[in-house]
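S.,

As promised, the 2'-deoxycytidine-5'-monophosphate run. Input:
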Amino acid sequence: MKNLKENKRVSIAIDGPSGAGKTSMARKIAEKLGFLYVDTGAIYRTVALRVLNSGVDPADGAAVTALLPEIQVKPVYEADGVQHMYLNQKDVTDEIRTPEVSMAASRVAAYPGVRVFLLETQRKMAKEYNVVMDGRDIGTVVLPDADVKIFLTASAEERAWRRTLQLDQEGMPRPYSEVLDDLRKRDYNDSHRAVAPLRQADDAILLDTTHMTFSESETALYKIIWEKTGVGEPPEDEKPGAEYEPIFRDGVNLENINKNINLDINAQESKENGEET
Ligand code: DC
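Predicted complex:
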C-alpha cells in the first residue's frame, strides 16, 4: 500500500473505451469515497455541441480550432452532486448526450488545439480536489502521477449490448447493430489519433469486465483503490474474520481475476521499489 502524504490530494484515473462503464462506476466509487467525480468526456462533448450548433463540420480541424476562443466550457457541481456542463453560461448537461454529439466529440477530441484548450481545466480540478477522473488519456497525459490508474474495458460486443439495454430503459431504443457500429467507429477514432490516443498507461491496472456484473466490477475496482491507497473502508474480504467465498460467473472464477489484479499491483510496487519480479 502506498503511503499518502497528509494534505496531498488523491487522484484516481480511470481510462478505457466508450461504453466500458467508466462513468457509472467512477461516479459510484467517488460517491463512496467522498471524492469529486470528473467526467472528462462531458467536457469534450460540450465543445462538440458548440461545433455542431455553429454549423461547423467536426471533420474540419481548422474551423473547429478557430472556434475555440468563443467557447467557454465550465463543469459545475450543483446540490444534486451531478457534474453539470455549462457552455457559455448555459446548462447543456442533457443536450450533450445524443449519439450525434458522441460521434462529434470523438472527432473534435482528435485535434491538438482542442486537447490543449481543455488540459488545464482538468488538471486544476485534480489539484484542488480529491478526484475520480474518467476519460481516455487521464493516466497517460492529464494526470501521469495519479495515485491509482485503472484501464477499464470489456469486449466491444458486451459494451454494445449494455449500451443497447441502457438506451432501451431510457426510452431511446436503438438497434444493437447500430450501437455496435458506432462504438467501433469511436474506438477506432479514439485509439488511432496522433495526440493522446486511448491506450493503457504502462503503470495502469487492467480491469476487463466482460464477464462481470456491475456490482462485481465495482467491488474489484474498490479493492484495487484500497490496496493502492488505503482510502475508504477495507473491502469485505479484507475485514478480519471474513469468509472466503469464490465468486463464479460464466464458469470464470472472479476471485482469481481479483488475485491476478493484486499480483499486478504487487509487481508494480516491486518495480517501483527496484525489486526483481
Ligand atoms: O467518455 P465519453 O463517451 O463521454 O467521451 C466522448 C468523447 O470524448 C470520446 O469519444 C473521446 C473524447 N474524450 C477524449 O478524447 N479524452 C478524454 N479524456 C475523454 C473523452
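The chain has two domains: 9-35+130-277, 40-116. Strands lie at 11-15, 36-39, 73-77, 83-87, 90-91, 131-135, 148-153, 205-208, 248-249, 252-253.

- D.
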